[in-house]
Amino acid sequence: MISGHGDLDTAVNTMRLGAFDYISKPPDLNRLLNTVRIALDRKELVVENKMLKKKVSKNYEMIGESDGVERIKDMIDKVAPTDARVLITGPNGTGKELVAHWLHQKSERSKGPMIEVNCAAIPSELIESELFGHVKGAFTSAAKDRAGKFEAANGGTIFLDEIGDMSLSAQAKVLRALQESRIQRVGSDKDIKVNVRVIAATNKNLKKEIEEGNFREDLYHRLAVILIEVPSLNDRRVDIPLLINYFSEKISNEHGTAKKSFADKAIKLLQNYDWTGNIRELRNVVERLIILGGTEVSESDVKAFASK
């Protein structure tokens, strides 16, 4: 707040009512700019803190009662308490990330970090630095030493999503990390010991990638100690009513509105759709129907707003 009434009582009351700072007129521009900068930084930290708290307090669980989902739940109960490496396969949008988080949440490493790396989103020339870190001067933009994701995940879990898109040179380094529990930062020959559990996921057929020379067979066997296949939504249509109910409640909470119900005929119509985008697509369609549909989402709403 900027005011010409620069007395102490006004300043105290202003701060008590929620002002970030109190500046008397005429304002010192340097102080004003500095205050705005600090306020913006503080706001960014508050938002980031809220997001992290939300992520930490989040409970991960697969919704469904189909044979495929029950099989995954059973495997997670058996595998999570161990340190066995897990390879999760399945089409895009099926919930591979959720399975990885659930494994970590139910493991003895749950109090440690869960570090996610999307191998497909990082350029091949940067993937090694991202995973293993680098030392100052290792390459042109390496202005200082930097720890990689493996070091950040020490004592916890690292989730290598879309590992089928990783370069062969990075695969070789990941293989060494799995074999020896040691990594080297880019530009250094010093070994760093790491204690991480590795969970990987891919939407690719890695056996086919091996045949074509795009993926290392020895790395595949190191990763696929436990293989979890996540079925497509078309293969678990029996779960669609449960998923619609779950997403309806979740989306309504996010929007701060009353939960909408779906008519039986609307649910039946959605069950018969060809869900090429899997769970991700279903969630988007449910959100669209909640926003555009009637008080109860009807069959006609589905035909009007969710037609494919």
First and last CA, distance = 53 Å
Principal-axis shape equals: flat
Strand order of the largest sheet: 4-5-8-3-9
Rg estimate, integer Å: 25 Å
Structural class: alpha/beta
Strand content of the residues, in percent?
Answer: 5-15%
Percent range of helical residues: 40-55%
Domain count, please report it. 3
- What is the total tally of β strands? 11
CATH H-level superfamily of the largest domain: P-loop containing nucleotide triphosphate hydrolases
Can you walk through the features of this model?
- The protein contains 13 helices and eleven strands.
- With 308 residues, the protein is of the alpha/beta class.
- It has a five-stranded parallel β-sheet with strand order 4-5-8-3-9. The protein has a two-stranded parallel ribbon with strand order 1-2.
- A hairpin with a 6-residue loop joins strand 6 (182-184) and strand 7.
- It starts with a strand and ends with a helix.
Descriptors for this entry?
Helicase, Ruva Protein, domain 3; 13 helices; 11 strands; alpha/beta; 46% helix; Rossmann fold; two-stranded parallel ribbon; 5-stranded parallel β-sheet; 12% strand; 308 residues; 3 domains
Structure at a glance:
The chain has 308 residues and is α/β, with parallel strands linked by helices. It is built from 13 helices and eleven strands. The strands form four sheets. It has a five-stranded parallel β-sheet. A two-stranded parallel sheet has the order 1-2. Strands 6-7 form a two-stranded antiparallel sheet.
Q: What secondary-structure arrangement, pairings included, does this model have?
A:
Blueprint: E1 2-3, H1 8-16, E2 23-24, H2 29-57, H3 67-79, E3 86-89, H4 96-105, E4 114-118, H5 127-132, H6 149-152, E5 157-161, H7 168-180, E6 182-184, E7 191-193, E8 197-202, H8 206-211, H9 217-223, E9 226-229, H10 240-255, E10 261-262, H11 264-271, H12 278-292, E11 296-297, H13 299-305
Parallel strand pairs: 1-2, 3-8, 3-9, 4-5, 5-8, 10-11
Antiparallel strand pairs: 6-7
Helix pairs in contact: 10-12, 11-13
